[in-house]
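Internal tracking record. Fields below are filled automatically when a chain is submitted to the structure queue. Please do not edit lines marked as system-generated. If the sequence contains nonstandard residues, flag them in the REMARKS field before resubmitting.
Queue: standard
Priority: normal
Entity type: single polypeptide chain
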Amino acid sequence: MVKPRLVFLSIAGPKDEQLYLEIIDPKEKHLLARYQYLGELSLDVINDLVNDGERTSNDCFLGLLGVEEDISTYAFYSNTKVKFILAVKAPDYVVKETEIRQLLRRIYTIHTHAVCNPFSMDLTPETLKTSIYFKESLHQLISDWNIH
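SYSTEM-GENERATED OUTPUT FOLLOWS
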């Protein structure tokens, strides 16, 4: 049985602008267009979920958005309307949503610390790409999760 592994992380701003996209496995960089497409599809699902008038839950974790072949996408929607999309490849393994929920909350915390840095005056989409704290913390979190 092949254990699950993270495929990509996408972070989108309040207006669905892409703030960050990280393809976890460097060998899959050639699949950038596919992962961008999955991220865009996920944004449509997120917007449908959060704009649903019947939605009663205030939980930021939106859960499983969809499955494309062997890649499952999950989402977290912050109170500032920042969207976190995480894709997991799990061909023969059931991924526990509680694990994904915890992982997305930790990513959200890392993101918050990076963009709320009082010493950084530059809060643009480049903030995450240039933040050493964000990159190192995220890479450590991802490597820990992939080997658990």
